[in-house]
Batch of 3 targets.
Target 1
Amino acid sequence: MEFKFTEENLKRIELAREKYPTALAAVMDTVYIAQEQNGYISNEVMEEIANVLGIDKVYVLSVVTFYTMYHTKPMGKYHVQVCTNVSCMLRGAYDIWDQVKGKLGIENMQVTPDGKFSLEEVECMGACGYAPMVAVNEDYFENLTKDKVEEILDSLK
């Protein structure tokens, strides 16, 4: 399957590229735009990113595989991330993790059969003072209880 950026996204990439002294520095912005367009980052997408920026594909691969916000396989419509790092763990993150796994019926990095939800255990989302926290796509929920998590998940159905 060949991947090509839309004209609109090529313009967005050019604007991102202009913010940085080198094309390499625009990789993260470009990968994010690609993921928005394609839903995940495949080998074909990485090749196109490298071509558009005029860089080696290994640089794209290193970014995609380092950051948890980029996905190398299709994820659910609602990608649920549960932080289980120290601050969140101390405030009940594993109870929330078990609750979400049980409610969705999936494990880490799996997608529900209907493609609606995917689940990921993540290390730190930078909200240590507001732990525990969960992210659903680009929305962040902090100071969670099991009841609040239940409400959030139910609101997505």
Note: The chain is about 45% helix and 10% strand.
Target 2
Amino acid sequence: MLIKELSKSDRKWVSDRTELLFGGDFVVSRETVHNPATLPGFVVSEGPDRIGISTYNIVEDSCELVTIDSLCQWQGVGSALLEAVEAAAKEAGCKTIWSITSNDNLDALRFLQRRGFHIKEVRVGIAAQIRMMKPEMQEIGHYSIPVRDEIELSKSL
């Protein structure tokens, strides 16, 4: 398993994964639009295959983990990606790292909390506003749970 910073040659793949996972080429958090294909990040590969990706955005002393995607669960790919983002954030002088997920994404909630993140805020009903910006956003998400709320998790670095 090899982890490296995203390169120009990875950007099309980032865009394709964003489209597949989020139903468009952008994601929304705290009502801010992010294009992951233009953000800094990391890619994990095994041989010639890309098996994971993370993107992040640093503003002042805070780092947002914008996306994290592992194509191989339970093999340490997500953990390696998160560790790489945390190291980049620390190097940039960040004091916190935070991420947003929807109420249906129980796997992300589990993953982040097991790695020291705490629920900081729940924005109840915000999905309706996000759908105005991104109509293709799913109504029903993981485990057949209606997508309604945005959950922000954070961790001190």
Note: The chain is about 25% helix and 35% strand.
Target 3
Amino acid sequence: MKTILLVRHAKSDRESLSMSDSARSLNERGRKDASVMAKRLLSKNIPIDVFFSSPARRAYSTASIFGEAFGVDSKKITVIPELYMAEPPAFHQVITRAPAEANTIIIFSHNQGITDFANMLTSVKIDNMPTCSIFAIEAAVDDWKGFTVKGNRFLFFDYPKLV
């Protein structure tokens, strides 16, 4: 069994119109939410073997905050360009290329693609992955190469405003 954690990046700063989309940083609420959600995930005692992130600053910053909570140096976060504004096939490709020895992977990316992909994985459907939300599933595979979107087990869906 393998575990996949999908995380939509935390709330970003929309103040600066001069910045490119990929350069937008987290705002104060985003940094706070990422810290809170990282701690909530840590409390579930799910060891994470591999961190994958979109190269967008807001996604990588979210991944770094989670990494810090899990004692993972930000240099160990693998940046994957295909995760920037990814559609479902890109998520599938990233997962099937994950190291076989990794039991749990966490992927930081963007909407709409991350919501669309989450909705393909189990019978549980969500309208939207809010910023800094986590959608977790368990896949009945021994090697990531065998991962498919069928037959997965829903574990949980969590987001900052869920109390």
Note: Strands lie at 2-8, 50-53, 77-79, 104-109, 134-139, 153-158.
